[in-house]
Specification:
By secondary structure, this protein is of the alpha+beta class. It has one domain (2-132). 25% of the residues lie in helices and 30% in strands. It is built from 3 helices and 6 strands; from the N terminus they run ββββαββαα. The chain has helices at residues 53-58, 101-108, 114-132; strands at 2-6, 10-15, 21-33, 46-52, 69-75, 84-85. Strands 1, 2, 3, 4, 5 and 6 form a 6-stranded antiparallel β-sheet that branches. A hairpin with a 5-residue loop joins strand 2 (10-15) and strand 3. It is globular. The protein starts with a strand and ends with a helix.
Length: 134
């Protein structure tokens, strides 16, 4: 059985080449398998970094109640911490990636705190899920 826990959304600000600033809304969607007793199966956790694509395409902040979340990057079992960037539509890769270039660069920049932010919010979402179980 697969279980899911979503983090709260958060915003990061980026700067375009023309020096204008824009913001992108994110959340982490965390999945894992459970054994017959409802315990998480070691090595089954996957973190999906999601973006509000509708907001990005409309050039608004997004991440609100009506957000349309799209998985933009995934880090799963056996990935050794390496993210895989996802296409908007796997059947039509000409549409490009769901994760904007600035976000992808931020995600892979060792000097950025983006990975730590994702890890902390993911851990909090998972812990919150388990606290609700009693």
């Amino acid at each position: 059985m697969a279980t899911t826990a979503n983090s709260s959304s958060w915003i990061r600000t980026y700067t375009r080449d023309d020096s204008t600033r824009y913001r992108i809304a994110y959340r982490s969607n965390n999945t894992w398998k459970e054994d017959a007793k409802g315990r998480p199966v070691p090595g089954s956790f996957t973190t999906n970094l999601q973006v509000d694509r509708v907001a990005i395409d409309a050039d608004v902040t997004g991440g609100g109640v009506n957000a349309t979340w799209t998985t933009a990057a995934t880090r799963g079992p056996g990935a050794n911490g390496v993210w895989t960037r996802q296409y908007i539509d796997d059947s039509d890769t000409t549409l490009g990636f769901a994760l904007p270039d600035a976000s992808w660069s931020d995600l892979n920049d060792r000097k950025s705190n983006f990975n730590s932010q994702i890890n902390n919010l993911s851990a909090n979402a998972i812990a919150k899920y388990f606290r609700t179980l009693g």
